[in-house]
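WP5 quarterly update. Target: 16S rRNA (Guanine(966)-N(2))-methyltransferase RsmD. Source organism: Roseburia zhanii. Length: 183 aa.
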Amino acid sequence: MRIIAGSKRRLPLKTVEGKDTRPTTDRIKETLFNMLQNEIYGCYFLDLFAGSGQIGLEALSRGARYVVFVENAKKAAACITENIRFTKSDKESLLLQMDVIAALRSMEGKYQFDIIFMDPPYDKELEREVLEYLKSSSLLKEDTLMITEASLQTDLSYVNELGFTILKEKCYKTNKHIFIQKQ
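C-alpha cells (predicted):
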C-alpha cells in the first residue's frame, strides 16, 4: 500500500495486520480521488473508521489542509500514528482514538469539514448511526460531501428521511462508494 499522487507520492504505508480491517485497494483509491480532485485542495477532511489512515493521508498528499483521523481499534490507531509520522504529516493532522460517535461529539464547535469519508465495518449499519448523528451536527457545512465505502448490498435509501440526498454511487466488484450531501 502506498500514497498514489501528490506531494507524498510513492511513499509506502504500513497496514494493520490481521483481518480486522480491509484496506481500500490502490485502484479503488485512485478512482475515488479522481472523482474528488476538484474538492480536495485546501479542504478539511474527516476520515472515520480510518484503518491504516491511507485515505486521509492520500487527501493530505493531494493538498487537503487538515485531516482528522478517527479510529477506535488500538492496532489500527498505532498504524495510523506510524504512517502520520513516516509521511511527516504531524502538523496537518490529528488522530482521535475513540468511538466514532464520541469523536464526533468531541469535535462539535471546533471543526467544520468539507469532506467526510467513512469506511465502517460492512453490514453493521454503522454508517446509519453516523448519518443520524451528522444530520444536526455543526461539523457539516451546507455543502459538505460525505462518502461512504460500503458493501454492494448496503441500502442507504433512508438518507432522504435524515435530510440528505445521494448524489451518486460508484460500484466496484466487491464494494461501492456512495456520495451524500445535505438536501
